[in-house]
Write a structure and sequence with these properties.
single chain; 95 residues; mainly alpha
């Protein structure tokens, strides 16, 4: 496994652990305050699944759009001084 791939796995694992710890903390607070969960467990898990799938779909779509974008225009150094039929004013260069 390359160093970059290993770093992504470690970062992902940390996020999972942080999320799990936050869930345990909220569960403990609900238990301490003797509160009922605002939604049935199945409904809550279905919502979490939807959030996860939506995040993955948005990431995949954003990556796909970024890959299919037009290439950037050539830099000013590569552009000719004047294009045929161009009536624009060229910026002066300091000497």
């Amino acid at each position: 496994m390359s160093g970059a791939a290993r770093a992504r796995v470690v970062a992902s694992g940390r996020r999972v652990l942080i999320s799990f710890a936050a869930g345990l903390a909220m569960g403990a607070l609900y238990w301490i305050w003797d509160l009922r969960a605002p939604a049935p467990a199945l409904l809550g898990l279905t919502g979490l699944l939807g959030i996860g799938l939506g995040e993955r779909a948005a990431t995949a779509l954003g990556t796909r759009i970024a890959l299919h974008r037009a290439p950037p225009p050539p830099s000013r150094a590569d552009a000719p001084e004047t294009a045929p039929g161009c009536t624009c004013v060229q910026p002066s260069t300091p000497r």
